[in-house]
Design goal:
Elements (H helix, E strand, L loop, with lengths): L1 H23 L8 H10 L2 H17 L6 H16 L3 E3 L10 E3 H6 L7 H22 L6 H8 L2 H14 L2 H4 L19 H10 L1 H7 L8 H9 L10 H16 L13 H28 L11 H19 L9 H11 L6 H18 L9 E5 L2 E5 L1 H14 L8 H15 L5 H15 L1 H9 L1 H15 L6 H16 L12 H15 L5 H9 L3 H23 L1
Antiparallel strand pairs: 1-2, 3-4
Length: 563
């Protein structure tokens, strides 16, 4: 208790003295009392550790209740700790680790921007700290910019570049640069944090720092901050948040050069960055959700702006496809290339890597089915003829989806539906949509039969979706290959009720799949023997494929039972 009293008294004295001195003189004319105070504290390691832990507790648990005096004082104290490069053992925070981590890195974990309350505190604290550092550096005989780089914590600069434009719309359109003193806005009885933050944001030194690589807030950094925002606790309304995100994506980061953390005007780069950020955030959120669940707290995986950023990605992909439709298509597929690049970094065949690869596949597929389905296809223009290509997705299905999502020999409905809806949408760009659909499906039977097998399994749910979509876009009859799926389903259903008919002109394995899945759904095992006798004389290959499906399913269930 005595140590706690001494600790609190020291911090209280520092904050009160800081406020009194600041009311008379700006930081560059206050002498070295604050620096000497912190250096004196460094000579008492136990007391220093207690004081630092108290600052972490105040900023993480009592941030909303801290007065302006506390915020200014603690920000000044933290800055001098940073200038002296003081580290704090992770062991002090009751962690299993023992590595030394800078105090500012620990504090940065408290300066989150998930809600309006936490964003406001982050604005106040970082504004006070960075403004104090900028003013303090001007007292040095060396170059002010060289000194301020040593004084300002990069994480505080990044937080300000994120939170100021978000909470103060005026700075999004005001690009003025000022050199007036900024400390005057942080003293007085009625402290205006908005004016102080805006003055700092427009200051020449702040602008110069923001252009330096280690102080930059890149598009990827911005996305990770924005994804953490909890919409239900955000200060911005849904409309204001959408307006802010549009400004950040289209007006700020998209036209900004790559060297400054932007996208260089390239929509493709922007889309790739968003996809990577969504996957990185989702992986981190899954881990946090598991930890919170294990601590009997409500998981926070769904309390983020994931859906908002997905909407921004959808808009950009739509713009990208509109541009790319008029330009020659390059090799590869920008969307699937992102997954392949990430997968290449996880190529080690260890169990942990295999689990991580499975997580990556799930997260990527979640993004994939949220985008316009026609993105899966490429259009090729050869003279006056436009054709579709889907080789990249065929390969992705065979190499990844078949192993990661295939259950009961088929893909999940949302993936199968996404492919077929995309096919009908993309076919509209061709001169003969029906022929384009038939060409892709005929090719898929050879290159990727899993897609047609999945369509056969889910046809009862797929048919009304595809029929409605086709009628909206075309007055021609249903494409031939899709009509074959309709006919094979009718043939299988009638066969199992005793109506023997000649099978439609489909591939034997398609007929066998229709028969097997119809039999499986109806649980009509007693009718299997009769059906096999009736079609044995007509098409032995159908029998062979049906038996193959049945035996494969039996083997899969036996393997699961003995595993």
């Amino acid at each position: 208790p005595l140590e706690m009293e001494v600790r609190d008294l020291l911090l209280k004295s520092f904050c009160q003295t800081f406020l009194v001195v600041s009311s008379f003189n700006p930081p560059q004319r206050q002498g070295e009392w604050a620096s000497l105070f912190v250096k004196m504290l460094c000579g008492h390691r136990r007391l220093l550790c207690a004081a630092l832990l108290r600052v972490l507790h105040l900023t993480s648990r009592q941030a909303s209740s801290l007065s302006d005096v506390h915020v200014l004082g603690l920000a000044g104290f933290t800055l001098h700790i940073h200038i002296l490069r003081i580290s704090l053992s992770v062991e002090s925070l009751q962690s299993a680790g023992k590595e030394e981590v800078s105090f500012v890195s620990h504090l940065n974990q408290s300066l989150v921007c998930q809600t309006g309350e936490s964003s406001t505190f982050c604005l106040r604290f970082c504004t006070a700290a960075v403004a104090y550092a900028v003013c303090l550096s001007s007292s040095s005989c060396s170059s002010a910019l060289d000194v301020v780089q040593q004084f300002v914590p990069p994480v505080f600069m990044q937080k300000l570049q994120y939170v100021i434009p978000r909470l103060i719309p005026k700075c999004r359109r005001d690009h003025d640069v000022v050199v007036e003193p900024i400390w005057n806005n942080l003293v007085g009885l009625n402290l205006n944090w908005t004016a102080a933050a805006l003055s700092l944001f427009k200051h020449r030194t702040f602008k110069e720092l923001a252009e330096m690589k280690h102080f930059q807030l890149t598009f990827s950094d911005w996305l990770m901050f924005e994804l953490e925002v909890q919409p239900h606790g955000d200060l911005l309304s849904d409309v204001d948040r959408q307006e802010y995100q549009h400004w950040a994506c289209y007006q700020h980061y998209l036209p900004s050069p790559l060297a400054t953390g932007g996208c260089g005007g390239d929509l493709l780069t922007a889309c790739r960055t968003i996809i990577n950020s969504l996957m990185d955030f989702s992986k981190r959120a899954k881990v946090q959700s598991f930890e919170e669940f294990s601590c009997t707290r409500r998981p926070s995986f769904n309390r983020s702006s994931y859906e908002n950023i997905i909407c921004r990605l959808q808009e950009m992909v739509f713009d990208l496809e509109s541009v790319r439709a008029k330009a020659p298509r390059e090799d590869g597929h920008f969307l699937l290339d992102v997954f392949r690049d990430r997968r290449a970094k996880l190529a080690l065949p260890t169990l942990s890597k295999q689990i991580e690869q499975q997580i990556e596949l799930q997260l990527f597929t979640r993004i994939l089915v949220a985008l316009p389905p026609c993105v899966l296809f490429k259009t090729r223009v050869d003279g006056l003829k436009t054709t579709l290509e889907c080789e990249e997705f065929f390969h992705f299905t065979n190499a990844e989806l078949r192993n990661g999502f295939c259950k009961e020999f088929v893909l999940p409905f949302h993936i199968a539906s996404h492919f077929f809806r995309g096919l009908l949408s993309a076919s509209v760009h061709c001169g003969e949509p029906s022929s384009a659909v038939d060409g892709i499906l005929s090719n898929s039977k050879v290159r990727c039969p899993l897609l047609m097998l999945s369509a056969t399994y889910w046809w009862a749910r797929l048919e009304p979706v595809l029929c409605t979509q086709w009628k909206r876009s075309s007055d021609t009859p249903f494409p031939r290959e899709l009509q074959k799926l309709v006919d094979s389903q009718l043939w299988a259903s009638r066969l199992l009720v005793g109506k023997l008919e000649r099978g439609p002109p489909c591939s034997p394995w398609v007929l066998a799949a229709a028969l097997y899945f119809t039999l499986q759904r109806g649980n009509s095992l007693k009718m299997l023997q009769r059906a096999m006798r009736e079609i044995s004389a007509e098409n032995k290959e159908v029998i062979y494929n049906t038996c193959s499906c049945n035996l494969s399913n039996l083997w899969k269930k036996t393997s699961k039972a003995t595993a």
